[in-house]
Amino acid sequence: MMTKNQINEREQFEMLTIEQLVPQDHLVRKLDAAIDFKFIYPLVEHLYSAVGRPSIDPVVLFKMTFIQYTFGIRSMRQTIKEIETNMAYRWFLGFGFHTEIPHFSTFGKNYERRFQDTDIFEQIFYRILKEIMDCGLLSEDHIFIDSTHVKASANKRKYDKKLVRKETRAYEAKLQEELNIDREENGKKPFPPEKFENDEMKEIKESTTDPESGYYVKDERTKQFAYSFHAATDERGFVLGAIVTPGNVHDSHMLQPLVEKIIEHVGKPVAVAADAAYKTPAIANFLLENQMLPVLPYTRPKTKEGFFRKHEYVYDEYLNAYICPNNQLLKYTTTTKEGYRQYKSNPTVCKNCPFLSQCTENKNHIKLIQRHIWEGYLEEAEHLRHHFEVKEIYAKRKET
């Protein structure tokens, strides 16, 4: 039998508290029990004046941010609207039924005037992470690094072309020093400092809507302004550190600063696992020189079908030369400012070689092989890839 509710209880008076309305297993109760947010006061005290009108409680402002990101609310404006009617959110903030919720513009002004361009949010993040560590929940020996692109709220057709300075890579100074040493050891003059500076400009597309984003091109169909979110986690999925960059910054450029941040705040990992985008000589050099195990995947050779692959040319460290499949030498010629040694074959010998068609398409019959000055570290990382322990660590990557 169909029942119709004839009783309207909307105006009924009840004697109750917000405490009674929030379920005991609600996530806000778990957050409140796990984290004592009072530690925020001394972190932000220097950002507030000792005189003037009383401010909004800074803990309330940060708790509002927690609500927004924990419950996946799109914007602070929408978060404020949700707090107005959601008793669990009011309870978490310590508000009563009739407590006035701060206007969203008040939050924006506080952020711009006090917290923007500070590391307050990062300090809060690492303070909470320390509590997790103290509880023995972190497993920081093995860390897993990856990045994802987040589309910016910007029209990809609205941009200005600008000439800007290239971003400085973390290993730039070290590379410049070592490649000049390499040049001198091979009888070449070192590059002057201006040689590196002359090429440091590039043209970019800058969004007129969101200039801090970067123009990201994945393929012909995927072109957009975006941000790159670079993150490191432990094997249990806890985030140990993160860096946000414009979407046109390559993943591999951010591994070193991200790992250095984790070493500073969490501790030095035993192993660092990452995907093929991070398999570069610079990363292998950084990890191995700092006694960290590189856990990197197999990458397919990019040689054209029907041609000899690079590993079929044997590098002779004593001669500083490559030996081709026909047992001829490719001799050292120079070291480029990108850190690559170049080895070239003798065209007089090559033009009559029976393997020429499998070796090069060069009209002058010259085979060129490039070897980075840190290539040895990359070869060591490739050798370690076959170890059982490395395979076991890399298998966990898809679980994080």
Q: Can you give a write-up of this model?
A:
35% of the residues lie in helices and 19% in strands. It is α+β, with helices and mostly antiparallel strands. It folds into 3 domains: 113 residues, no CATH class; 149 residues, no CATH class; 69 residues, no CATH class. The strands form 3 sheets. Strands 1, 4, 5, 6, 7 and 8 form a 6-stranded mixed β-sheet that branches.
Which labels suit this protein?
alpha+beta; six-stranded mixed sheet; five-stranded antiparallel sheet; 16 helices; 13 strands; 19% strand; elongated; Transposase; transposase activity; Transposase_InsH_N
Radius of gyration: 29 Å
**Helix and strand composition category:** alpha+beta
**Count of helix runs:** 16
The topology string of helices and strands comes to: HHHHHHHHEEHHEEEEHEHEEEEEHHEHH
Number of strands: 13
Number of domains: 3
Ends apart, CA distance between termini: 52 Å
Spatial shape: elongated
Q: How large a portion of the residues is in β-strands, by DSSP E?
A: 15-25%
Instruction: Report low-confidence residues grouped into runs of 5 or more.
Output: none
The average pLDDT score comes to: 91
Give the helix proportion (percent range): 25-40%
What would you call the quaternary organization?
single chain
The main pleated sheet reads as: 6 strands, mixed
Protein name: Transposase
GO molecular function: DNA binding; transposase activity
InterPro entries: IS1182_transpos, Transposase_11, Transposase_InsH_N
Pfam families: DDE_Tnp_1, DUF772
